[in-house]
Design brief:
This protein has about 270 residues and is of the alpha/beta class. It is built from ten helices and eight strands. It is about 40% helix and about 15% strand.
Length: about 270
């Protein structure tokens, strides 16, 4: 039985040192319980310091990390997850994802997904999943693991890049969509449609965009170094949008992909 991936978490991409310690500490104080990191972010130890400071039960937190491509070989993958656990100062992880499909990697998808499943069997993580997988890759993962064993596919998804074919496919499989870059590096916050709608609703553009994603059933993991923004973002959980507003945001689709690293990214769905 897969635990539900929390609908709202705090992201930590590009945050390290005292900055990420403060961000995660503020987030937990404000009520965030899901924390998203990755081995390549090089901030797991810093997040561990924030977790140690927090007066909260481990069972109330939901901690996600992602395995980096250098660690996809079976033995390396298991060891890397153990190292992530040590750095974070916890006894287990809630969710471990394959970070990128990395088509140029010498490690077959079967090897790294079965190694990920082994990490779960060993009790290193409660759930497993993938990130940046296309329809073709999701289908391969389902063949290897079973859809019921894939908690989420974390993908770039914003009003400018809605990935509708992939999202619809994941829905039919019962796999949760987690949206990263929901605010498109902040560019949607300057969008005239977003700003006009937010003004009408007397909410912020960020709140509107996050509420749009939540309305669609996606999990979101926005990050911020500012406590007031973390608090403001969290209010998106309370916002109910009507279908007209949602449709106006849907109309902003422009295939606006921002993250496409060579050698790591797959051939994207069209």
């Amino acid at each position: 039985m897969i635990m539900a991936v929390p609908s709202f978490g705090v992201g930590t991409f590009r945050l390290t040192g005292d900055v990420v310690i403060e961000s995660v500490s503020n987030a937990i104080e404000l009520g965030y319980r899901a924390i998203d990191t990755a081995q390549i972010y090089q901030n797991e130890s810093d997040i561990g310091k924030a977790l140690k400071r927090a007066d909260i039960n481990r069972s109330d937190l939901y901690i996600t990390t992602k395995v980096w491509v250098d660690n996809y070989e079976r033995d390396k993958l298991i060891q890397s997850v153990k190292e992530s656990i040590t750095k974070l100062g916890v006894e287990y992880l809630d969710l471990v994802l394959i970070h990128w499909p990395a088509p140029t990697s010498n490690v077959a998808i079967e090897e790294y997904l079965l190694a990920l499943a082994e990490a779960k069997r060993l009790g290193l993580t409660k759930e497993i999943g993938v990130s940046n997988f296309t329809i073709e890759l999701i289908d391969k993962a389902v063949d290897i693991l079973g859809a019921e064993n894939i908690a989420t596919n974390q993908i770039e998804l914003s009003p400018y890049l809605q990935n509708n074919k992939l999202v619809d496919h994941m829905k039919t499989l019962g796999i949760k969509v987690t949206s990263y870059m929901t605010l498109a590096y902040g560019s949607v916050l300057n969008d005239s449609t977003i700003n006009d709608l937010a003004s009408e609703l007397q909410i912020t553009p960020a709140q509107l965009t996050l509420a749009w994603a939540l309305h669609k059933g996606y999990a979101v993991i926005p990050s911020s170094t500012k406590r007031e923004n973390l608090a403001s973002n969290l209010q998106a959980l309370k916002i109910v949008l009507d279908e007209k507003t949602v449709q106006l945001i849907d109309n902003l689709e422009r295939d606006g992909r921002l993250v496409n690293p060579e050698g790591l990214a797959p051939e994207w769905d069209i």
